[in-house]
Every structure is written in C-alpha cells, then in structure tokens.
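Postdoc handover notes: sequence design on the structure in folder B. Input tokens:
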C-alpha cells in the first residue's frame, strides 16, 4: 500500500468514522485547521466535502470569518478567496 493510500485509509476509516462528532462538525473542524495551516489546495477540496457533509454556505463563511481571530487576517483572507473560488466553480455562489 502506498503512503498516500495508507494515510487516506487512516483518515477516512479511523478518524472520520469515530463517534462523537458528526460529519458536518468534523468538516468545520477540518476547515479551521486547514485555514490555520494555510493549506489552500486541501481547503478547496474540504470546502466541497463540507457542503456534501451538510454544511451551509453561511456556516462555511462563518468558519472563515471566525478563523480571522485565531489564524490571523492574512490566512483567513487567503482561505476566503480560495473557498469562494471553489464555491463559484461549482455554481454554489455568484
């Protein structure tokens, strides 16, 4: 098994399937972490996963805004632009 497959297997099978948080909550936590780390490419992927997991556009927007206080304005601003680009590309916002 390749390292990427092993990592994905662990994340999906071991972490995302644990009890305690639903998929929607896990998506919001994941967005916050990726914003703080400045991982914009992965953030784009996870924005769409958050939508599939039941997060509303308003909730995603609020997570982006909330991250400003904890991750800093530059990271939150870059993340907001990346999220908007992704949501526009999928026709979810204008």
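Designed sequence:
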């Amino acid at each position: 098994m390749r390292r990427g497959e092993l990592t994905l297997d662990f994340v999906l099978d071991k972490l995302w399937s644990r009890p305690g948080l639903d998929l929607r909550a896990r998506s919001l936590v994941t967005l916050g972490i990726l914003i703080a780390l400045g991982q914009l490419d992965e953030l784009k992927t996870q924005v769409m996963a958050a939508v599939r997991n039941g997060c509303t556009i308003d909730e995603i927007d609020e997570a982006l805004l909330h991250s400003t206080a904890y991750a800093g304005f530059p990271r939150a601003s870059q993340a907001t632009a990346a999220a908007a680009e992704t949501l526009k590309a999928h026709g979810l916002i204008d």
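Context for whoever picks this up: Residues 3-89 form a domain with the AhpD-like fold (CATH 1.20.1290.10). Don't rerun without checking with the PI first.
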